[in-house]
Write a structure and sequence with these properties.
282 residues; alpha/beta; Rossmann fold; 9 helices; 14 strands
Length: 282
């Protein structure tokens, strides 16, 4: 289903009713969020529906108005809408304001309120993967990319007490916010990853298995921890070519989805059931 600029329609152009919950973005067909939230709704015995809806960037304002008029409970946002939604002047949390991006909207008394659960979701995913080794991994951190996901990552690492944080972008001017999170910035092409203890890919490279890795995986210390926020049926080239320990973005996806569920319903999220819905343990 997609929003055609006026209404929600199916693939044949027939009008549809807005579901109570959905993830919007473009592209969105690959999203695992419907499976996660279907499991959460079932586990908490909530009679509701969550769908993936394609919404192009230029149609965002109209889509939000249509969803608001339909009385939906909430929305998740993915690329390319996470930063664009704040430019529309919606109310937002302090965390959302600091990160400069939103991934969750809740309708309160007829108006949208924006939240960001990505940073806390990423922190939960790192804690799950590394446990007692997290402190050592946080000594020298590298973030690849400079968009909303990168800022959420920098916010999370600062909250976890990271040591050095370096943000690498193709255009260093796009990472001029690095100092706001206690970090430094550099041009991606000049990046030296040999001493990094934690590397997190926040670029879109990896969404398609044919994508080249954003950096040379062979230059990483095999004892470092590599996290690629992309996910798919196959590991990204970055993960598959890395000789050490790595994880894709599914654990973060589960965690941020669970936190979104709490925003919408004020209920304890059923993390084990949500993770099981995409073949993971929690």
């Amino acid at each position: 289903m997609y929003f055609d600029g006026e209404r929600l329609v199916d693939g044949a152009g027939a009008p549809l009713d807005w579901p109570a919950l959905s993830v919007i973005g473009d592209p969105v067909a690959h999203s695992l969020s419907p499976a996660l939230h279907a499991a959460a709704l079932q586990a908490r015995d909530i009679q509701s529906r969550y769908e993936a809806i394609r919404v192009a960037g230029p149609s965002l304002a109209l889509a939000l108005e249509a969803a608001r008029a339909a009385g939906v409970r909430g929305l998740n946002l993915t690329l390319p809408l996470k930063e664009a939604v704040l430019e529309l002047g919606v109310a937002r949390t302090d965390e959302c304001e600091r990160i400069g991006a939103a991934n969750t909207l809740v309708l309160r008394r007829g108006d949208w309120m924006a939240h960001n659960t990505d940073a806390r979701g990423l922190a939960m995913a790192l804690q799950r993967a590394l446990g007692a080794s997290l402190g050592a991994a946080l000594r020298r951190c590298v973030i690849l990319g400079a968009g909303g996901a990168a800022r959420a990552t920098a916010h999370a690492l600062q909250g976890l007490g990271a040591g050095e944080v370096l943000i690498a972008a193709r255009e260093v001017s796009r990472a001029d916010w690095a100092r706001d999170f206690g970090g430094r910035s550099c041009v991606l092409g000049d990046l030296d990853t040999s001493r990094a203890t934690l590397v997190i890919n926040c670029t879109p490279l990896g969404l398609d298995p044919a994508d080249p890795p954003p950096i040379d995986p062979g230059a990483l210390d095999p004892d470092a921890h590599l996290m690629d926020l992309t996910y798919g049926d196959q590991p990204s080239a970055l993960l598959s070519q890395f000789a050490g320990r790595g994880q894709d973005g599914r654990a973060m996806l589960v965690a941020q989805a669970a936190l979104s569920f709490s925003v919408w319903y004020g209920a304890l999220p059923p993390l084990p059931q949500m993770a099981a819905a995409i073949g993971m343990d929690w």
